[in-house]
Automatic annotation (TrEMBL), chain A:
Keywords: 2Fe-2S, Iron, Iron-sulfur, Metal-binding, Oxidoreductase. GO terms for molecular function: 2 iron, 2 sulfur cluster binding; iron ion binding; salicylate 5-hydroxylase (NADH) activity. Pfam families: Rieske, Ring_hydroxyl_A. Its EC number is 1.14.13.172. It is an enzyme of class 1 (oxidoreductase). The gene is nagG. It comes from Pontivivens insulae. Residues 47-160 form the Rieske domain. Its cofactor is Fe cation. This is Salicylate 5-hydroxylase, large oxygenase component. It comes from the Bacteria. The lineage of its organism: Bacteria, Pseudomonadati, Pseudomonadota, Alphaproteobacteria, Rhodobacterales.
UniProtKB/TrEMBL annotation, chain B:
The lineage of its organism: Bacteria, Pseudomonadati, Pseudomonadota, Alphaproteobacteria, Rhodobacterales. It comes from the Bacteria. This is Uncharacterized protein.
Length: 385, 74
């Protein structure tokens, strides 16, 4: 059981300047109640990523997603627009869609066959006025469509605000969009099934974010990366209230002796060697390079278990799906998977460590850990500290 | 040649819960002439209409909606 009185004091300690602050209290990593608190204040109360546009590529495609208990439905309508609705019939609250599929026509509730267009409109209410009478004055189709969930899409990532109370999506995403304005408006192409993988990790979702934020661990945990990308080649990325992460000044992919992915056209020179890795709070970790992009969606399935959904994108359809790049795509996916797998023992080790009775959240290096503290500070603020 | 209602009913039962909405719609429409009352016809038409909506056959949907409207079902 979460002790809210001691939690308030612990969160106040988190919000101190980095040199004096403690990390988030262990209870936020080891308690089911904490995830419930975070569900309300963080995941459903703000913007969070639930999936990708590539999951529903064709008109009529629909994918049900249970997002921390909330049944949602990702749907691409006949005009190609992507919407998210609550995955329940407005009649008796029956779940509408149980598994991903394509709808040639309407979405029919399996209970009483109320039907909804792909854009959410209530299309039919059979027998609602008695046998064979399919309208009734008490059921107004104009006000009884599928319940829309606020949705925003950026870099193929689908974000939702379940509560409906968060700031406008465009305002929320604006800082990262501005930071990566060199990539704005560019089409990215998903690399297909071989560029998509998941990792199941026995840790709280926050530990994955924290680990991704900082470069401090690179020489110890990722010796392969350190061979060409040393600690001193990295810099912090910090935008309070939104995201934090790290950048490198020596991006130099060596997947093949004689072949490389095409770069985005006409990027500024700085991206010849730069790459950036950002945790966009709360649950997506992204990496941008001149020749590819990746996103890792964190799905918290329990307070101590997280699924990482990794998706890799390229700069052209040819690079993403062409046979000529198949081997290179496979090498790139393998390389990133190895890096992400290298992180598992540390996040799982920290999860175990959170059960130490006297661990107080830990202290930060004000030089090396400020992106991590920035995330802790954001969590504390969202939980009301 | 018109099929026996029992045959239609048997096929409807066999397809129940399956994905072939177009066939289900057609079967309910095929059953229509066997319905002696307007109320029963309206009932069959409703099911033909719903499965046409599921299939997404716009021309068929328009036709069935007109029939339902004429019978007071819409």
């Amino acid at each position: 059981m979460l002790d809210l009185a001691s939690l308030a004091a612990d969160l106040a300690a988190v919000r101190q300047p980095v040199a004096q602050a403690h990390g988030l209290p262990s209870a936020l990593y080891t308690s089911e109640d904490a995830l419930d608190l975070e569900r309300r204040h963080i995941f459903h109360g703000g913007w969070a990523c639930i999936g990708f546009g590539k999951d529903v590529p064709n008109p009529g495609d629909a994918k049900p997603i249970t997002f921390l208990g909330a049944p949602l439905l990702l749907v691409r309508d006949k005009d190609g627009a992507l919407n998210v609705f609550e995955n329940v019939c407005r009649h008796r609250g029956m779940i509408l869609v149980e598994e991903a599929r394509n709808f040639g026509g309407v979405i029919r509730c399996p209970y009483h066959s109320w039907c909804y267009s792909l854009d959410g409109r209530l299309r039919a209410t059979p027998h609602v006025g008695g046998p064979g009478i399919n309208t009734h004055e008490a059921v107004d189709p104009a006000t009884t469509g599928l319940t829309p969930v606020r949705t925003g899409i950026w870099m193929d990532m689908v974000f939702v605000n379940v509560s409906g109370n968060a700031a406008a999506f465009d305002d929320w995403i604006a800082p990262l969009r501005a930071r990566w304005s060199d990539f704005e408006g560019r089409t990215i192409h998903h690399g297909g099934p071989a560029s998509s993988f998941t990792l199941e990790v026995n840790c709280n979702w926050k530990l994955a974010i924290e680990n991704y934020c900082e470069s401090y661990h690179l020489p110890w945990v990722h010796p392969g990366l350190n061979s060409y990308s040393r600690l001193e080649d990295h810099y912090h990325i910090e935008h309070p209230g939104e995201f934090s992460g790290q950048g490198t000044l020596v991006y130099n992919p060596q997947l093949s002796q004689n072949k490389a992915f095409p770069d985005f056209d006409e990027l500024p020179e700085k991206w010849d060697k730069a790459a950036e890795y950002v945790s966009l709070f709360p649950n997506v970790m992204v990496g941008i390079h001149r020749d590819h992009f990746f996103a890792i969606l964190l799905e918290p399935v329990a307070h101590n278990r997280t699924i990482e959904h990794v998706e890799l994108y390229y700069t052209s359809a040819e690079a993403a799906t062409g046979e000529a790049f198949a081997a290179l795509r496979a090498s790139n996916a393998k390389m990133w998977k190895e890096v992400f797998v290298e992180d598992i023992f540390v996040v799982e080790g920290m999860q175990k460590g959170r059960h130490a009775p006297k661990f107080d959240g830990g202290v930060f290096s004000s030089v090396m850990d400020s992106p991590t503290h920035l995330f802790h500070d954001w969590v504390a603020a969202r939980l009301g500290a | 040649m018109a099929r026996d209602p029992a045959q239609i009913d048997a096929e409807l039962h066999a397809l129940h819960g399956g994905p072939d909405a177009a066939r289900l719609s057609a079967l309910h429409e095929e059953a229509l002439p066997h319905m002696p009352t307007m109320q029963e016809q309206r009932f069959q038409l409703t099911h033909a209409w719903i499965y046409a909506l599921v299939h997404g056959d716009e021309a068929r949907i328009c036709k069935l909606e007109q029939q339902l409207t004429d019978l007071g079902g819409l």
